[in-house]
Amino acid sequence: MKANPSYLQEFTKGILKENPVLVTMLGMCPVLGVTAFIVNGVGMGLAATAVLIASNLVISLLRNFIPPQVRIPCFIVVIATFVTIIEMLLKAFQPVLYEALGVFVPLIVVNCIILGRAEAFASKNNPLRSVLDGVGSGIGFTLALLLLSSVREIIGQGTILGPDPDTVIHLFGANFEPMTLFAQPSGAFIALGLLLAGVNAVFKRFNIK
Amino acid sequence: MEKLLSIFFIYIFIDNFVLQRFFGICPFLGVSRKMETAIGMGMAVIFVMAMATLVTWLVYTFVLVPFDLAYLQIVAFILIVASLVQLVEIVLRKISPTLYLGLGIFLPLITTNCAVLAVALLAVRQEFSLIEAVVFAVGASIGFSMALVIMAGIRERLELATMPDVLRGSAVTLITAGILSMAFLGFKGMISL
């Protein structure tokens, strides 16, 4: 039995070393699907973070009561409950964001990050550690979404804080011709691929492992 | 009939689930390393997706809506998908052991394939009729399998290609998927609903 990592480590590992998107490549569908605009990307990240923290907490509290044979269905029910709550909250308070994210909101249920953290971490650790782990992984996920959506919106549209015309800021003036490829689905794949290559290069350069 | 055909082909070529709508990216990246596994996964997905959409559509229309339980949609659908996968696994093992050996290992993975849940949710959101919903599911899953098989073919060759070290693995796979997705843009506007 190796020594328990400190609480700080539980928190920080999800942000960099085990970043769900950039390192372990989990939960890729929303990462590609909603990152055409920064607002949507970050909104998705926060919604998933909320579900992740809540489900980690509940699963960790219930970890001694759930029989191991049926643990996966139990986890899924817990996660689905929180996703339903988040979906209702978004619908009520952020209808524009809810419309923009579309079917990706209910799809948080099958986001591999959340089930992965439940199975690999929350079902084995105490509630405090599980919550910290959830917060860390959630922040890591949100940061990755922020990074990718910034690249895609700035290069693909030449704006930030779009698509809402009240808040949108055009960065490069009227003569700017945006590279619409990056706003397209194919651009999402290419931008994420290049981002991963960049992350690999940085990790290699600074020997992070 | 015309509408059914357009739904079928739109979700294979134009609104391809993987390349245009980004559903089921995890299995797309995970099991596209070898042609054999890609074909096995594709078959399993076609089978489960059609079944799942049929059942979820019936449950939604005849149970959730009449009893005013539509807010339980997410919980109900994911449970149906999960238990259906389990059921298919058990039945298959009994009825056709050869098919089970072929598909067996892929079946449990399908529960967390978001394409399956997406198809079930979209079928009721777009207010498809029962037949339209099933055709939609079959089309979408064939599109998914096609993308998977194409990708597997490319990746078998990519393994041997020379490239910068940092690109190797998922980075180059994603960029390839991007180019593939660009190629599929060519179908855009061919048919519409």
Structure write-up:
The complex is a heterodimer of chains A (209) and B (193). Chain A is mostly helical and 209 residues long. Chain A has a domain at 13-150. Chain A has helices at 7-13, 28-33, 38-61, 71-93, 95-101, 112-122, 127-156, 185-205; strands spanning 159-160, 169-170. In chain A, strands 1-2 form a two-stranded antiparallel ribbon. In chain A, helix 3 (38-61) packs across helix 4 (71-93). The relative contact order of chain A is 0.18. Chain B contains 9 helices and no strands. The relative contact order of chain B is 0.21. Helix content of chain B is 73%, strand content 0%. By secondary structure, chain B is mainly alpha-helical. Chain B starts with a helix and ends in an 8-residue tail after the last helix. The longest helix of chain B is centred in the first third of the chain and has 30 residues, at 35-64. Chain B has one domain. The chains are: A mainly alpha (209), B mainly alpha (193). Chain A binds chain B through residues 25-30, 32-33, 72-73, 76-77, 80-81, 83-84, 87-88, 103, 106-107, 109-112, 115, 181, 184-190, 192-194, 196-198, 200-201, 204, and chain B through 19-26, 29, 71-75, 77-79, 82-83, 111-114, 117-118, 121-122, 125, 164-167, 170-179, 181-182, 185.
